[in-house]
């Protein structure tokens, strides 16, 4: 389809010339002034429609290219640890952020998925974290040369460690119903979550930086062990996936080279 539009855009002058020649022949054969007037209106209307259609398609592809460039520029800014990104990506200077365009995703299943058009040749590897400008999304599980498969929080195996600043750690998991909410469990009894508390991801360093994940809406205490369970409004919009950022630790080779001594 794109090749067809580009062909029409390239040869639009020739095609319009043919249209006008046909109109001239019809005008010559039809001496009726009313018919001539109608043919003029039809001809110029068709020409305007062609120009407008081609302009619209060209503008559409231009906007797509602009969006891609903006996403890449945003990734470069985040890698530089700018103030604008500090709220979501703490310690972001330790990571590069690879922009990846979403080509397919789901959010209504029990085990959802996200496919992005960026893969091994872009530097993406399994185990890397994925996030949007609004917060944490999930982790890369499979990679081909050009694509990557991401398991989001909205998955039975999408649980992640999470923390509330100054209130310890817990585990964030999704119950399989509403894609806007998740549950933070196993928060110690002395660390009561309060509405409005920000929840951040807490993963291995090689996966990604601590990233905003959501906001506490309410919390209840378990009667048995007195730990807290909090309802969390997820910060990322899983219903509208467009571009993601894949976090790549800059010095991952040095981290991998460390050997933990046997006990």
Helix-strand layout with pairing:
Layout: H1 2-10, H2 12-29, H3 33-79, E1 95-105, E2 114-116, E3 129-132, E4 135-143, E5 148-152, E6 160-164, E7 169-173, E8 181-187, E9 198-201, E10 212-221, E11 228-234, E12 243-249, H4 252-257
Antiparallel strand pairs: 1-2, 1-12, 2-5, 3-4, 3-12, 4-5, 6-7, 6-9, 7-8, 8-11, 9-10, 10-11
Helix pairs in contact: 2-3
List keywords for this structure.
263 residues; alpha+beta; Thrombin, subunit H; 2 domains; six-stranded antiparallel barrel; 4 helices; 29% strand; elongated
Low-confidence stretches: 81-87
Please state the structural category.
Answer: alpha+beta
Overall form: elongated
First-residue to last-residue Cα separation? 63 Å
User: Which CATH class of the largest domain?
Assistant: Mainly Beta
Number of structural units classed as domains: 2
Order of helices and strands: HHHEEEEEEEEEEEEH
CATH homologous superfamily of the largest domain - what is it? Rod shape-determining protein MreC, domain 1
How much of the sequence is in beta strands? 25-35%
Using the CA coordinates, give the radius of gyration.
Answer: 27 Å
Q: For the residues shown, what is the average pLDDT?
A: 78
Helix amount: 25-40%
Under CATH, the topology of the largest domain can be stated as Thrombin, subunit H
Strand order of the largest sheet: 1-2-5-4-3-12
How many separate helices? 4
CATH hierarchy: architecture of the largest domain: Beta Barrel
């Amino acid at each position: 389809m794109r090749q067809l539009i580009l062909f029409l855009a390239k040869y639009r002058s020739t095609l319009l010339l043919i249209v006008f020649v046909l109109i001239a022949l019809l005008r010559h054969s039809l001496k009726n002034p009313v018919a001539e007037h109608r043919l003029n209106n039809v001809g110029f209307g068709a020409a305007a429609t062609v120009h407008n259609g081609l302009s619209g398609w060209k503008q559409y592809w231009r906007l797509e290219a602009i969006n891609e460039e903006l996403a890449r520029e945003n990734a470069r800014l985040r890698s530089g640890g700018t103030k604008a990104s500090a709220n979501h990506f703490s310690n972001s200077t330790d990571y590069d952020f690879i922009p990846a365009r979403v080509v397919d995703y789901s959010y209504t299943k029990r085990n959802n998925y996200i496919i992005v058009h960026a893969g091994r040749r872009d530097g993406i590897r399994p185990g890397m974290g994925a996030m949007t400008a609004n917060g944490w999304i999930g982790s890369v599980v499979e990679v081909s040369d050009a694509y990557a498969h991401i398991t989001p929080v909205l998955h039975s195996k999408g649980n992640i460690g999470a923390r509330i600043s100054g209130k310890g750690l817990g585990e964030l998991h999704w119950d399989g119903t509403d894609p806007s909410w998740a549950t933070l469990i196993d928060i110690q009894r002395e660390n009561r979550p309060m509405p409005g508390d920000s929840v951040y991801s807490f993963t291995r360093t090689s996966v990604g930086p601590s990233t905003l994940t959501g906001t506490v809406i309410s919390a209840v205490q378990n009667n048995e062990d007195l730990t807290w369970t909090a309802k969390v409004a997820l910060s990322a919009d899983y219903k509208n996936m467009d571009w993601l950022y894949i976090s790549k630790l800059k010095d991952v080779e040095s981290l991998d080279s460390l050997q933990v001594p046997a006990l």
